[in-house]
Structure formats: C-alpha cells, structure tokens
C-alpha cells in the first residue's frame, strides 16, 4: 500500500503539537511527510522542514506559498494538517478545502459560529474531508463505548456526566507567565478561557458517545483567580436533542488533578465510565448487576474498538496513538471507506456554538440558551 | 468512667438505622442502652426493647410515654436518639429538648425551614445539645481535611466540588417498589427527592470542610425516570459566604456508582480529595508539587483526626465507626468538652433552607436564590 | 436476647489490643464486659477494669485470681479473651479450657508445636470452644471467597498467592526502638520474626479460603537490616494437601506498603483477589471472561458473607468489625450454632508447625520440609 | 537530520511483533524502513515488504539473501531488527554483527548460555551495537526509577520484588491451541516455559532498576495444568551481587491478571513501585514519610526520564512508545552518543544463564545455584 502524502502547517521547532502530529501521521506508516510550512518565520520554517526530511521544493515559507506550490503538483499532498494559532484556522482551512485538499484542523476549528458554518458549507461543496482533531474520541475504548450505546447495550441514555479538570493553572503567582496568561485574556483567547480550551473536548465526547447533539445549556463561569478576566472554572448543564441530561465540569485550578478528563454515561439498562488517565479500560455496569472491566484488546470488542488497537490486551496504548487513530481513520476515508467516527466540520461548528452559548448563559446568570448553530436549528 | 445512659426512639426490629445507632453508641463502651420507644406499634416496640436488654420499665410504647417516663427519673437518659420517620423529627426533638434532654436527631432535622429555626431557638434556650447525624463528617480523614483547611494548609479555598451519586434507583422496572417509590412522591418525601436524601450530606460536607456556609445557589433538577414527580438527579452550583465557588452533583440513577460520595477542595496553595468508599485516605497535592496520600493513623495528623481513630495505620475503619465517632463527640460534649465538629441544629436548618432554595431555583430554571435560613441572613 | 458475659486477660491501659477486643465484643451488643485481669501489675489492672465499668469483685489482679474467682460463680463468664504476651498464651488458655471456659486466644496460640497439640487435645477433652483470633478471615468478603471456592465457583484451586508486607520496620535508625527491636530478638520473639508476626495471618488466610491445609514448604528468610538476628523478610513456597501451589511473601521493610495484606486464588475456572486495605470488595474473574467487582452488601452474596455485614452496599466496614465478626461467631457458637468459619485450635497449631517448618527450611537453604503438626500427619 | 536506514528480519504479515517494531522504529521519524526479509516463505516475504513500501531490490527472500544484498551497499542499513523464531536469533544476530551491522535482537537473544557468550564476544569484536529488546526498561518512569536508585534517593537497595503474571493460559480446555501449547513443550520452547517467556523480563527489570546483577537463585516451578511438561508458574528467590534480596513470581494461569508486570524496590531510605498497566506513574515513599505519585512529564524528573517522554504530563504513553524509546536510544547510540540504558548482549546472556539456573534449581528442589554466565563469574 503506497503511503499517502501529508503536509503540515504550523508545528514548528519547539512546539508540542508538531511532534504529536508527526508521530500520529507516521506511527502506522500510512503517511509520508511530504510538505510543510512549519513556522510563521519563513526562513526558520523552511530550514526546519528540511531537517525533518522534506524536500527543498516542498519546504515552504508560509501557508499561501504551500497552497500555490501544492495545488498543481501531480503528486500533491493527500492531506494537510492545520496546527497554527487558533485565529488562523478559519482562513487556512477554508483556502485548502476550496483548493480541493483534505484537511485535518486543530481545535477550535474557527473562532465564531459564522465562520464555522462557512467551513461546513465549503467542505460540503468541495466534497473533501474536513476533520477536526477531537482526538480523545479516537481512543479504542471510547469507540467501544459509542458502539455499545448505539447498539442499545445500556438502553436509552438518560444522563451523561463529564469532567475535564486539571490544576496546572492553579498557581496565582504564575499569573504573569505568558503561557498561562493568554488563556484568560479575551484579546488573545476570545470569549472563553477554560471552557473553550478543555470543556469543548468533554462536550464533544458526550455527543460522540451518546451519538446525539447538545440542544440547550445553562452555564456558571468563575474566575477563581481574580486577576483573570475569563473563566478558569465552569459548570455547564445541558440537554441533548434526544432528552439526555448533561453535566459538564471543567477547571484549570483543580490542584491535584493532572489530566482529569473522564465521562460517565448512564442509560436505562446500564452505566459506562471512562477516564483519559487510564484509557485502556472501560468500566461497565448492567443495571442490577456487577461492575465489569472491559479491556482494550479483549476478545469480542466491537469492530470500531478492535480495529484501532495495535498491541495485545493490557499493553497500554496512550495519547499519541489516539492521535494516530485519527490519521488511521483519515487514511481510510481518503481511500474511500466510510469512517463515521471521524470528527468533522459539523462537530467544529457545534463546539463553537456551545462556547458562545455558554458565555451568553453565564452572563445571564445561568439562563438556558440554545446551544445549536443556526444552521442546525 | 461510668457509661452514659442512652435511649432511642425508632429503629425497631428490621430497620437498618437501629443497628447502626446501637453499634455507634455502644462500640466504644461510652453509652449504656437504657431506654427505648423503638416501634410505632407499642406492643412490638416494648418487646423488642426488652429483647435488646432494656429493663421492662424503660421499654416504652411510644415517645410520649418515654418522655413522661424519663423526665423525672434520677437516672434519666443522658442522650436520646431520634430515628423515626422524617415527618416526626421536629415534634419529638423539640419536646425532648424542652424537657432538658440532649438529642441526636437523624437527618433531615425538620421538613420546613420554619421548624428548623424553631429547633435552633429551642436548643439554644434549653442549653442542651441538639446534634444532627451528618455522620460522614465524623470520619477521621474528613476531620483531618477540615483541620488542614482551618490551619491554612491549602490557602484560601477557591473551589469545592462534591458528588453523592449512586445507581440504586436506576431500574425503572423497580418503580413500583415502595422502598424506592416514596422518595419521588411529594406526598411522602416533601419537596425534593434525591437532593434532600443524599445531596444535603454533600452540601453539609462542603460547609464542614471549608468551614463556611452556603450563601446562594442555582439548581438544575431532572427526573430521568419520567414517572417520578421529584428529581432523581440534580446539579447545584453555589457560592459560600467567603466567596468559594461550589459544584454539587447528586444522582440515584448513576448505575455503577455504589456509594459515590466524594469531595474535592481546591485552595490557593493546594488541593484535597476524599471519597467515602475509601475513607481512610486523604489525597493531598500542594500547588506545583506531587500528590501525596495521607493515611488515617499516620504520625503527625491533626488532633481532630487522631482522636477519632481506633486502630493502627492502614487498618480500615468504616461507616459504622464514623457513626460511633458522632457518639464519641456527644459523650465528650455531654461531659462538658467543646466538640465543635459535632453537627448541630444550625447545620440542620441550613440544610433545609438549601433544599427549599434548590427547589425554588430549579422551578425558576436555574435562577440564583438565597440559600440561607432567614435567621442567618 | 440476654448478653453473654465476657472477660479479658491482658489488654490493659495503653495497649492497642485491648480496645480492639472491647469494641469487637461490644459493638453488636452481644457481650457484656463482666470480668478482667487487664494488667500484669495487679493494682493497675484492678483499677483500670473498674474504670471500664467492671464490678469491683470481678476486677482481678491476675489471671489465676480471675480463674479462681470466676470458676464457681453462677454468673460466670461465657467467654474469656487471652490478650497477654505471647509466651503466656499457652498456660492461660490451657487453664481456662480445663476449667470449662470458652476461650478466644490471640495469635500465636502457643510458641511450640507440642504446646499447640496439647491445646488441641485439651480443647477437645473439655468440649469447650478454643478460638484463635485470625480476625482477617472474618471479613465478609473473605467469607464470600471461601464460600465461592467451596461451592466450586472457580473450579479446583491450582494456585494461591498471598502477601503480608509493610514498611513500618524499615527504618534502620529506629532499630533501638524497643517496640520494633523485640520482634527480631530470639530471646523475646522466639524462632521467627516477620513470618511469625504477619506471615501466619497470610498462611491461615490461604488455608481458610482454599479450605485446605499446608502440607510442605520451602522458605527463604532474610534480615535485610543486618543488625537483626531474625528475619524481616521471608518468602515461603508451599503445597497444600489437595495439590494447590502456594506462594507467600511477607516483609516489614517494604517501605510504602502500609498494610499490604492481600490474597489471590486461581482455580480452573476463575480467579479471585482480595486486599485488606479495600476489604469490602472481592475481585472475581471467570476464565475467559471479564473481571467483576463483588461488593459487600450486594444482592445474592453467599449467606456466610451476608450475615456478617451490618450496613448497606458500599458503606465500608473495616478492621474493628472484622474482629467483631469473630465475636458474632463466638456468640452463635456458644449458643450452640455451628460456625465452621471460626478459627480454632487446629488452626493455631498448624500455624505454629508452619513457623517452625519455615525456620528449618530457611536454615537448610530452602529444603522442602513437612509443615504439618505431627498429630495431623 | 537524515533518517537512519532500518531493516527487519521476521515480522511478516499477520505477526504481532512486526507492527510493533515498525511503529517503534518509525514513530519518531528516526528510521526509514529500507530493507526486509519478513517471512520464512520467500515469495510472501518479498511481496509483503513491497506492500509496506520497501524497494523491490531490498525486499529479500531470506536473511542470508538480505545479508548479501546489504553488505556492500553504500546506503546499507544502519540497523537490523531480528524478530524471527527464537531458535534462529543466535545465528542471524551473529552473522549480522560479524558483517558490521548494528542489531536489535528480540528476546531471548539465544537459547543457550554458550551461544549468548559468543554473541557477547562477537559484538565486542565487531564494535557494533547488539541490543536486546527488553523494552519495558525503556518506559520513562522505569528510567526515572533507575536514575533515582543510582542517585542514592532510596539509599542502598535491600529488597526487590517483581511479578509478571497473567491468566491468558489459564484455560485447560485451550491446551490444544497451538498458540498456547508450544510454550510448554520442550521441543519447541526449550528448557523453560513461563519463566523464559515472561520471567526474564521481570528479572531484567530488577537488574536494570537496581543497577546490579543476579548472582545466585533458588526456584520453584509448577505445572498447574498437569498436561504441561514445562512450568506455567514459577517463583524465583535470588540475591544480587551487591547483596540485594530478590523475589520474582511469574505465572500464566493467574486468571484475572491481564498483564501483571510490576516491580517494587525497597532501599534504606525509601521504596518505589511501578506497574506496567499504569506505566506513567511511579509511586515513591520516603522512609517515615508519605507515599507520593511521580508523574511522567512533571517538572524536575531525571533527564533519563524526561528525554523519553513526548507529550505533556498525564497524557499517557503506552507500550508501543516504550518500544519506540528503544529505537530512540538506538538512533542516538548509532550516532555516537552514550546510551547506557540500552539493554545489550550482556543482558541477553545473563537472562539465559538465569533461565538455565532456575531450571537446574527447580529440578534440585530449590537448591541455590549460581545464576551468572561463566564469563561473568
């Protein structure tokens, strides 16, 4: 099987996200890293791309140069990953889709709901894949959870409870640290801090596993470190289209929680629990029965979970391979297989609508507001 | 040290609560079970009391008879426990306080805020102890958490997050089971279901550890099993007098959670975590540091935790001895020592005010409402 | 039901074991603390007994005085607990059995195998109960494990692996601390240190759950703190009569383990796991199936587990109530019910034979030796 | 940085080990998969190699053809991985070393001690790297543990306790399954079953973290499923050169354990604990202090741990990236950096000597035997 050709925009020397995507794309030998515009500084970006093994003529100085360079090549890239600062996602994603490229965009896909809706329309018109990197949804046992819900194994879902809380921004003496500060500064982060950063992963996860969309919500935001303009702690209650009740807590001041992203789904006939720090197990309890541990790699998993696992039962597979699973799905989708677990532009715009809805609700002291993008109302 | 004399109202043959109180009162040899009106059926109550070793003349047919019988005895009981149906707590507690008895009342202390305020006034006027059985607060490591907070070991508290969720009412086919149904029937349970049953334990715990009172709240109630009139799942956001942000989730349909009562407290310089299913550890993380496990019985605990532990480190002590700790505190308090960890009438009325506030807020779609009893505004 | 009358020898003011037995005997209201010789100093012992509420004429100065005092009383004690220094267990237990008292002896029942065999014979001749306080075996979920094994739920047992390791003697600078030092001094502790102290609990547990006896063993002893004459770490491999393979590790220098007593039992059709620091769960895995959590208090437990649980599912019951369960069994047995889970003199002598066998084997560099008392060969 | 060129022998279509190595070599973009002899069937092997993107002229039919083909190329491979059946490791590894290639050999490196010693000598003479894939030692937190021990952070090591137990061969009805049966058949597996398969990983881990070698040992082997000629359960006691006491249990019939590989190291001033199913934490307890959780990715880790972590704290990295870490070390070592954590031929021959020693000891009923290869005595 010939490798697909892959390019990246952003992810330059010293970034965290660049290595994560390179590992994700290359781990399974599905993609060849063929082109890149890796830095906002053209000279550095070209040099770094070449150090990573990209040919000189495909080591670009910026994304526009890359778009022009790749557009008409016979061996043009099959997929471009957009891993630039948030404010640029929209225009780059849009431009590449319009030029007929498949795109994997980092979250958030856009900053506004209007931009998000435009991406949905452009992607649809282009016939190309527009994926958004909600990579937690690609853990095998998250896929197992979704398959179980869809298969009716816990009955109609009544309640979903999810948290994404950490304590890494809990030190007020660190408030001037620019890597922390920008998250709480509207000029740089937009309308929301912690909810837009982490909360939307949890909200996406709830929708993903329940296979349902968030309909309306009520939010309580707090800046527990008073110098912060944006929230560092948020609680969002929601209802899904099918009636499921939702509860989402997200915090960056939860000292002692490291990467406290977990989800519990409760249905008529059973409950499920999954946590990102122990991602290879899914905890399942049938109503009136005993709690069971479902292991990645065990016999009898749903195909959706089975196909995204590489090593034997109880050999843990972690975060980088969840990212790699997104690339596995993308490779399959590019080759024409249906991969409906792949998060797409609709997920991106729904997240953005939820962020704006939560901000509105919090400003109105928890009033319930519509959380849907206008195009999906 | 002579044993104190103790009596109980309610807790008859077959009840769960009777054995728990008898064990709690007798485990440490502090109380002698001297009198009882154990059943609403006089004959059965008298017989059962005698089977439990109570003298015939103190095996009473009902609480009024017991009040009359004990009132003028030279060796009258030092403490009476009220473990009757909720609707009777108020009048029995009031009557015994007015007659000069110390009382331990099961929760909820009363059904209305007005009654609660009256108990506070009666208790104050009587000079007697009126305790309420928020027994989880008597676990040694909960006392340790409270002592650490009061001692400034985690700095000013920013955020408290607590859950009390189980799945034992998650089976809709069990909806006609009378032991389940009454909780969701306003005629029997009052204005609130799960929040009044379990949520107020969590709310009391938050106040207890943070050493602060709930000021205002916003609630979202759901009846996830549609036939239920009262809520089986609730989320309550709150603010404490000192500004602490609070989040409380309680559910009875969380299938797979058995006794999911836990609390996390996050301050300026550290975080704490405690869970009722593993009550002998307190998890502590200093800001920027490593998570540590504090063990019941380890050297250097605060006196409040040390004095309520009976056996060596890592020998677990469970729920029945948390109840016994309430009785230890009561014995000390009856003998004149200050035991400020003992939950009292003020805690009882605050809980009732919070229940009514949450019901009001939920009816107003999450509007923020005052959660304080009028007497404490 | 009239309370039974109970006496204790040893367990004086300041001891750890005294309160544990008083709580165990009194928690469920089954025994009245009627007599005691609590201290090797007669004056102190008599005074302390009276402070604990014992009548003056039954507050004895030593065990011989108590034997004489109780022997001919009409209301003599129904049970005596022997909680004196190890070297005195034999003569006291023997004397009380011969005088027709039921006895609960602390472990080790004797220091030599010969003495142990004599106790077995005396107990048999007396027709009285001689129990030994292997209290861990009285946890409800240990009883559940034994019942499952006896019921064939994991098939024939192939393998049992048990540990009892802690790190509380791991500080070499503490070597002169008399509370630590005596354990490793043959003049005070006898032939074995850590194995005789903790290991025999694990060995008893293996026999108890597997319902089988240790037949032969091979031991490796180490004094990891060189100043210690007796072992502070031991590994014992064994075989049971039915062919089960056994592995037992015990250590007092395992820094970081607090009370690391756990057991795993593996049969033809399933495996079980239990740990003393989380005693309310039993982990069960059917061959080829998923691991399940069995909770104390859940529906459908074996009667042996059900009857020793006091509070609802997931309300933890800890070590003191495991001791109380021994007293529950004793009260039943005194009243004539068969309680075959109660550890007795045969268990006591088997433990002692295993200790001496392990010492012999370790001296012979791991040679396999017979671990049975001569009377059971 | 140009990618290094890498080849593999074995790991054909359908094997588990092939994808693990390909992922390990390619995950970080350090190696280009340039050559392969992937199958013992030449036609299938060549075809599969080409499907994986290897050029036609480097898709070899067998290892001898590959040796000839690569030997004189200017762009010859920098590293060859030997992932063939165990019995062929010796001759292939030897041949490639003699031809001046760097080799990564799967475990066991050889079947006999003599062969192992020859590999050590050949590797030394060649000046090339001969690594053995003890990949668990490349987990970041295992490296942290080793660095802590070497840095004296737990004092002199007294005791190491390690287990590698699973239950995947616990079903006797599965005894005819060829994927299980060969492990216990001396004709196919050699002198040892479970100990040679899993136990040597644990033994290597003990040596690795303690930075010490196994000196002598005593073993107890059991075939708990009677039809098995080789052991499916083993206990090995050992002593290290520096005096450390060792305990190692390994089993394949431990139903309910999935991948129960863990290690505890106890020194004079602290204890460490690590488990392969939760590999991103290292549990550390200073003597007399509280247990702490050290997280992969936290600030202040030793460089050995820091450099092998790719993603932020509490983002798990699993087994496949531990294999990748071996390749990271190899890439560095090929480029001339000292990577003393890389397991080598000496580790390979020590393991083999330990296997044979354990077999000898078990046959002699646990006699203590020398566990060192003659060349290291």
From TrEMBL, chains A, B, C, D:
All residue ranges annotated as the Gfo/Idh/MocA-like oxidoreductase N-terminal domain in the record: 5-134
Xref: Gene3D superfamilies: Dihydrodipicolinate Reductase, domain 2 (3.30.360.10), NAD(P)-binding Rossmann-like Domain (3.40.50.720)
GO molecular function: nucleotide binding
InterPro entries in alphabetical order: Gfo/Idh/MocA-like_OxRdtase_N, Gfo/Idh/MocA_oxidoreduct, GFO_IDH_MocA-like_dom, NAD(P)-bd_dom_sf
SUPFAM superfamilies referenced in this protein's UniProt entry, alphabetically: Glyceraldehyde-3-phosphate dehydrogenase-like, C-terminal domain (SSF55347), NAD(P)-binding Rossmann-fold domains (SSF51735)
All residue ranges annotated as the GFO/IDH/MocA-like oxidoreductase domain in the record: 142-272
Organism per entry: Tropicimonas isoalkanivorans
Descriptive protein name: Predicted dehydrogenase
